[in-house]
Design brief:
The protein has about 130 residues and is mostly helical. It is about 50% helix and about 5% strand.
Amino acid sequence: MTFTLETVSGIRTRIFTLPDRPPFMIAADLAEIYGTRVDAITQAIRRNPERFPEDFIFTFTEAEMDLLKAQNVFSMKANRALQRGFTHAAAYGLSAVFKTPVAARVSVAVHRAFAAVDQRAIREVPLS
């Protein structure tokens, strides 16, 4: 199977985890998936605060940034927009503000990719 950013498997490779954080994506990957620019994502969030409450997007701590840079999630010169994690709800919510055929199509794949991450996490929980 080919892993592209329009397949569930391809998007799944761009969903990251950190201790004590929900699974997340970064703005650069979301921009690529939705066929837009990072600054368009930032602008959409600023213009639609009711669609992106505080718990949908979080800012990485310095320690988290260092860990993500060490894992090559993004470069050492990550800009402010890349210093935030976008939860399942935020990643999916972008489809409501980007009214394009691409957004409509990939929103389903984004939702399914996060659901696959959730299912995997459930299977990995040990039973007491």
